[in-house]
Structure formats: structure tokens, C-alpha cells
Amino acid sequence: MQKVDDRENSQEGYVLTLSSKLLLKDHWRFPAVTSDAFLKPWKSFGGWVKGGNGETAFEAAHGKSVWNYAVENPEFFIWLNEVMAADSKVTSSVLVTQYKALFEGVTSLVDVGGGIGFMSRAIAEAFPHIKCSVLDLPHVVASCKGTENLEFVGGDMFQAIPSADALLLKAILHDWTDEDCFKILKRCREAILSTKKKGKLIIMDIVMDSKGTHETLELQLLFDMLLMVNTDGIERSEREWEKLFNEAGFTSYKITPVSSFRSIIEVFP
User: At what angle do helices 238-247 and 178-193 cross, to 10 degrees?
Assistant: First the structure.
């Protein structure tokens, strides 16, 4: 807590610091900093680094991957969706207000791995002419309800992705290895090309930049560590992104920074 002196009203009081605000239930990062399932892997981190069992520290702590753990533990599954939805709450407002040009000429969009659809709902509301679809595993979207221009599709992004003018991958690829990303990107390219129109893939993820400010690089490295602890993924530099795009058959890309640590990458088949 911080002590403040309100000179205008001649009152003293206390306000929350930036750190303590994280503990408010309505703070967008609350689920990520209070879930025991997320905290436990850090307790196993030291032993895991020294050669402990498991592909990740999460697996060393829980005996299974974060994805399998979510399937078997409904409470954690809810927490995980809350984390992703909280992040999308911040990102979506920026996307639909400050980057409207992204959606020019787009009539259909698939949010690949879009969870419970927070991001897609914002896009569907802001652009009623766009038919939006959320693709995620059947158990994820089973209870989700669509709207006039929003539908939920149960499926597997490694197997097939519905066709659309634009595909959206928000904070998805950084969870996976290069080999898995290649598979996902190949499916994305197939889905875009099948429309016979000039489509694109929209990626919202971190592009590691050693030339940025110290604070930005520090935040990006923190996210990289979070991925190392909980998943098989990594945060990637522009060169690493370019390598993935080329291997998957894409012809060009454009990077637009949208925050201090995250970027929009438009990728064209």
C-alpha cells in the first residue's frame, strides 16, 4: 500500500501499488498470479533445470503437460480461459479501435485457438459485416454461444482449419515448438488459399527485439521464461519468425508493433 496525501480535500489515505493491484480479482492479470497450478512449477524449476523429469517444469510439477492438465482439471481449465480472456480484453480494444485497417476487405475471419471467443466477439461487434468463427478443441467451445456473425467450431488446428479471408493467431504460436508451428502455419496457408481470394494471416505475438528499451526487453524475456516453465514454446526474434514463414510457404510479412512488447504480424501466402 502507498500512503497518499490529498491536499485538495485535506485527507490522508492509502492506495494500492502497481504490484498489489495485481491481486484484485478484476485485474486482467489476476488469474495468472494467483493460481496454484501456475505457481507450483516454479517450485520445481530448480530441480527441473538440473535434469529433473518432464519436458517442462509444469510437467515436472504436475506429471502432465499444461494442456492435458487443463483437460483433466475443470477448475484449472476455467482459470486458463480466464487468463486468456483477460489478456484479450486489453488487446481487443486496441485492435478494433486503433488498427481498423487490418480488417479492410475482410469478410470472413477464423480465430484459430480462440478459446471462449473474447477476441472474436470484439471483432464481430466492431465489424458486423465480418463473419467470425472461433476454432478450438470441442471441449473448449462446447458451451460457447455464438451471435448473428459469430460461430464456434470444434476442431483441431493441427488437422484442419476452416477457410476464411483472414485467420487470426493471437498468442498461439509462442506456445509451440518450431516443428509444431510449421504444422499450424501450413494448415493456415491451406485455409487461406482455398478461398481463392487475396487473404492473410494475422499473428499477435511478441517479436523479440534486442534494440528496444531495457524495460521492453526485460518484459519480453519474462514472457519467454513463462513459456519455458509452462510450455514447449519460446518467444521469437524477427529472424526466427521469418524462417518459420518461409518454411511454411508464405511469401511475405509485415510487422507492426502495437504495444511495448507485442506486435501484429501480417503474413501473406
Answer: 60
